Amino acid sequence: MYQYIAIAAYCVVLFLTLRDIRIFRRTRLASYRKGALKGLVASTVILAGIILVGINAELGLVIVFIGLYINRKGVRENVFNDATTQERLWGKTDIE
Fold first, then answer.
1. Long-range contacts of 41-50 (CB under 8 A, 24+ apart)
2. Distance separating alpha carbons of residues 89 and 19, to the nearest angstrom
3. Per-residue confidence of the chain (96 residues) as pLDDT tens digits?
4. Under a CB-based contact definition with an 8 Å cutoff, are residues 76 and 32 in contact?
5. How far apart are CA 44 and CA 8, in angstroms?
6. How far apart are CA 21 and CA 90, in angstroms?
7. Coil, strand or helix: which one is 32?
């Protein structure tokens, strides 16, 4: 069960990282570049946590939560003006 929680966290972080990469490529805003780099570091830490969950569940989940803390959202510019929720989810921006 703990393995599934860790894998779900990994998938969420990877999705948000890919979204930040897409927004950065479209807008060239530095805050999204930093967010994508933090996401890469966080996904690596979470992957280590996934491996550790098989050995020691509590320690592995602590490592996963540390990775989620690393991936926390920082200050970002507003790039969504008239976008719907689905467009925001996929990273569509109003700034080109």
1. 41/70, 42/13, 42/17, 42/67, 42/68, 42/70, 42/71, 43/10, 43/13, 43/14, 43/17, 43/67, 43/71, 45/70, 46/6, 46/9, 46/10, 46/13, 47/10, 49/6, 50/3, 50/6, 50/7, 50/10
2. 8
3. 999 999 999 999 999 999 999 999 989 999 999 999 999 999 999 999 999 999 999 999 999 999 999 999 888 888 878 888 888 878 777 776
4. yes
5. 14
6. 11
7. helix
